[in-house]
Amino acid sequence: MENVEKCACGNEKHDEKLEAILKKYKQDKSNLIQILNEVQETYGYIPKKAQEEISKYLNMSMAEVYGVITFYSRFTLEPKGKYNIAVCLGTACFVKGSEKVLDKVKELLKIDVGQTTEDGLFSIEATRCIGACGLAPVFTVNEEVYGKATPEMVEQVINKYKEEAKNV
Ligand code: FES
User: Fold this and answer.
1) Are residue 91 and residue 140 in the same domain, yes or no?
2) Strand ranges (E), the chain
3) Does residue 132 share a domain with residue 63?
4) Is residue 1 scored above 50 in pLDDT?
């Protein structure tokens, strides 16, 4: 899914989108977060190839770049699933048990936050307050908001989307 074309000789062609992003910034480590933000926005995740190019460009090790990506939950290493489940871990939701909701999502999908199921259907995200505290605990599936969430409800909702995916 990486946006890197292969030419006839088998070598990877230069990724022009990535090059355009890098060109905007000076080759200074302090620009890492901004570059990662743009790459995340452009690709929906931070492809391996982009990590390599960024580390070369900023003269940083891959481990340093990887460390920053994994530190911030807004950066992801895989494309999001067709259904992205985002559980709010803001204060109001947390107090009302959103961690249990998140644990149930992880248990049912057998993946962690920031990962995508092998079939590409679901991904999990942990978010800050989404401004629906009155409905806490809250999670969303793409644009759809689910309030007063319980682990049981999570199971029903996931099953609903599995069914929907089968019928598409
Ligand atoms: S804390 Fe979850 S919606 Fe505000």
Assistant:
1) yes
2) 83-88, 122-127, 139-141, 144-146
3) no
4) no
* Domain interval for residue 27: 12-71
Pocket residue to mutate for ligand 1, from 95, 102, 127, 130, most atoms within 8 A of Cβ: 130
Q: What CATH number is attached to the domain comprising 103?
A: 3.40.30.10
What is the CA(133)–ligand 1 centre distance, in A? 4
| pTM of this prediction exceeds 0.90 | no
73, 126 Cβ separation under 8 angstroms: yes
Q: What is the distance in A from the centroid of ligand 1 to the CA of 140?
A: 11
State the total domains in the chain: 2
Residue with tokens 């090059």: 19
The answer to whether residues 153 and 87 belong to one domain is yes
pLDDT of residue 22: 96
pLDDT in tens, 147-159: 999 999 999 999 9
Q: Are residues 53 and 30 in the same domain?
A: yes
Q: Do 21 and 56 have their domain in common? A: yes
**Ligand 1 probe mutation, 87, 96, 129, 139, most atoms within 8 A of CB:** 129
d(CA 107, ligand 1 centre) in Å: 22
CA of 137 to the centre of ligand 1 (A): 7
Q: Which two tokens stand for residue 17?
A: 């989108």
Phi, psi of 52 (to 5 degrees): -65, -45
pLDDT in tens, 30-50: 999 999 999 999 998 999 999
Residues 98 and 41 in one domain: no
Distance CA 81, CA 164 (A): 14
